[in-house]
Specification:
276 residues, mainly beta, OB fold (Dihydrolipoamide Acetyltransferase, E2P), Ribosomal protein L2, domain 3, 2 helices, 17 strands, 4% helix, globular
Length: 276
């Protein structure tokens, strides 16, 4: 996949950069693996806004992705690679030898017609899924389970992957993109390869309308509000200093550690790198 730029026929076209999707499936999704996706638009069950600046957006159907990869010892053909509006990477429709179909996350360099397989002791090949204990150190993996049988939780967005950096007894040491090193049970499943659509981070949407298609409403900065509406509000003219940056509810917005899960601290070998 490559990036597309446009001739500046309009002001919005001048800065627009999108990902070329010409090689993806152009039809509708496989209907038995989809369901309605009613957008909450940032509202809770009382209809009150709990997440600001959400709303609108194009109508979507939810594609049911199999993050568990539990169909073992049977090969599957990659039937097609599709765009999924609910995630940043692409997905692939695979068909097993018994006729059953699943949606999986699509790694880079996988092609229509390739064969993939799940289970212990399968080949170390892009698209295959196997336990961490069967994967060599240094191989790029994605869709990694935190607990055996719990489904993939780590490295699921476009262009991401993690690496096995070592073995510690019954645990594998996983190095994240952030620099964090974490212990994960070696019986947990992971898929081989780096996820597709790495150019997603280079997209420039070009105009406000495309944000509205994605369900994003305009965001008003706190410093231009009144004191009753935001801690940064008020003041004469353009006054932006004199206070610590916080969220509308007063939560510190610059580097405050909010993680509070001492139960899993023992699994983190090295913390992620600090910003700056």
């Amino acid at each position: 996949m490559s990036l597309k730029s446009f001739k500046p026929y309009t002001k919005s076209r001048r800065g627009t950069i999108l990902v070329d999707k010409s090689e993806l499936w152009k039809g509708k999704p496989y209907k038995p693996l989809t369901s309605n996706n009613n957008a909450s638009k940032g509202r809770n069950n009382f209809g009150r806004i709990t997440s600001r600046n959400h709303g609108g957006g194009h109508k979507q159907r939810y594609r049911h992705i199999d993050f568990y990869r539990k169909k073992f010892n049977m090969k599957a053909d990659v039937e097609r690679i599709e765009y999924d509006p609910n995630r940043s990477c692409y997905i692939m429709l695979v068909k097993f030898e018994d006729g059953q179909k699943f949606y999986y996350l699509a790694p880079q360099n996988i092609k229509v017609g390739d064969k993939i397989e799940n289970g212990p002791n399968v080949e170390i090949k892009i698209g295959n899924s196997l336990p961490l204990q069967d994967i060599p150190v240094g191989v790029n993996i994605h869709n990694v389970e935190l607990q055996p049988g719990a489904g993939g939780k780590i490295a699921r967005s476009a262009g991401t992957s993690v690496v096995i950096s070592g073995i510690d007894g019954n645990y594998s040491l996983i190095k994240m993109t952030s620099g964090e090193v974490r212990k994960i049970d070696s019986r947990s499943m992971a898929s081989i390869g780096v996820l597709s659509n790495p150019d997603q981070k280079n997209i420039k949407i070009g105009k406000a309308g495309r944000s509205r298609w994605l369900g994003r409403r305009p965001h008003t900065r706190g410093v231009v509000k009144n004191p009753v509406d935001h801690p940064h509000g008020g003041g004469e003219g353009k006054s932006a200093g004199g206070r610590h940056p916080v969220s509308p509810t007063g939560q510190s917005a610059k580097g405050l550690k909010t993680r509070d899960n001492k139960r899993t601290d023992k699994f983190i070998i090295r913390r992620r790198k600090k910003r700056g």
